[in-house]
Amino acid sequence: MYFLCSILLLFSCSKEESVRAIAGSGVSRPIVRVVNDIVNGQAVVVAGAEQYEFMVAYGREMPDGVLLEFSEIPTILPIVMEDQEGSRWDLFGYAVSGPRQGQRLPVVSAYIGYWFAIGGMYPGTEVFEGQGIAPPFNPPSASPGWTIPEGEVFSGSGFDLIPALDFPRVEKYREKDFWDSEYYLADTALLVGVKVGGKYRLYPHSILDFHEVVNDTIGENHFAVAYCPLTGTATAWNRDLGGLVATFGVSGFLYNSNLIAFDRLTESLWSQMRQECINGAVVGLQKDVIPVLETNWKTWKTLLREPELISFTTGHPYNYDSSPYSDYACSDQGSPYPVQLEDTRLPLKERVLAVIANGKAKAYRFSSFDY
């Protein structure tokens, strides 16, 4: 492994609990674009709306063998689409009406991130409605005991020097007492959300920037939310490991500029974007993925009447109003850490949805989901 000094980025930049109608949207026309697609042999559906800053993807082949075809419908969020059988589905992949009411679409590996990170981690990434040919690349072989080339792993800090959050406090946002709250989120602020055990929970980027990994529990469901500020990617996975429940931390290592987490049971290393153990006692193990919905605070307040967020009172002496990465997200430059391939077909910092199937990726742009 090579060691790179930690780089301090000091920039500045400006930048179904209930169904609530989007002000002024009405229901006379679809507000969400729906794409039935095939990604490396896997049938998927992608739903997105650029004006509300979200894209999500799910599988289309149901456990009973039926291949669903989805269409756009005039509706109110979070309902986004209808299948050929007449069932209507929400943003979280659940059927809310029709013959499949209560069923859930198959989970696929999908997350939003910066284009440079997607193209670098998955050389040859196909771009939906895109033009141009991916640059040629002959990836180096994995090292013994690793699923990736060990020589491509770099160190930016050390184990737990970036402190993960373990079982944070949660708070409900209530509009009536919002202005008396100890924190403030701009409508444009991005939050990562999960629906676990029938409950929703949100994780602001402004907290994740400092901690990167959150170990959390809802009911009997044990999961971790992992966010890499360098690649702009947010994922969630089950923390069960070999019959035990692990917690995860930040290793300080990076692969293709992306977070490598470690579990505290075996100290094995886990790639956030690949969502697998890349080295250690359980090398090669894939995590059970939990779908995430990443969008802005204004949209979240539209989707949920009283969103539940992790608290800004974390016990750590951080000013969550000021990101340590500042204008990094606004810069047109890539990461200061190495990436194995620079694919310039899209702007390096454009946020895209990556759908991963059988080791290959397809990227979807927000501009493809503009009405």
Overview of the molecule:
The chain has 371 residues and is mostly beta strands. The chain has helices spanning 115-121, 205-211, 297-303, and strands at 2-3, 33-39, 42-49, 54-59, 70-72, 79-83, 88-90, 95-97, 109-114, 126-127, 153-155, 165-166, 170-172, 190-196, 199-204, 213-218, 221-228, 233-238, 240-241, 244-245, 248-255, 258-263, 269-271, 276-279, 293-296, 308-310, 351-357, 360-365. It folds into two domains: 32-137 and 342-371, no CATH class; 151-310, no CATH class. The protein has three helices and 28 strands. The strands form eight sheets. The chain has a six-stranded mixed sheet, with no helix packed on it. It has a four-stranded antiparallel sheet with strand order 5-6-7-8, with no helix packed on it. A four-stranded mixed sheet has the order 9-27-28-10. Residues 1-12 and 14-27 have low confidence and may be disordered.
Concise summary:
With 371 residues, this protein is mainly beta. It is 6% helix and 35% strand. The protein folds into 2 domains: 136 residues, no CATH class; 160 residues, no CATH class.
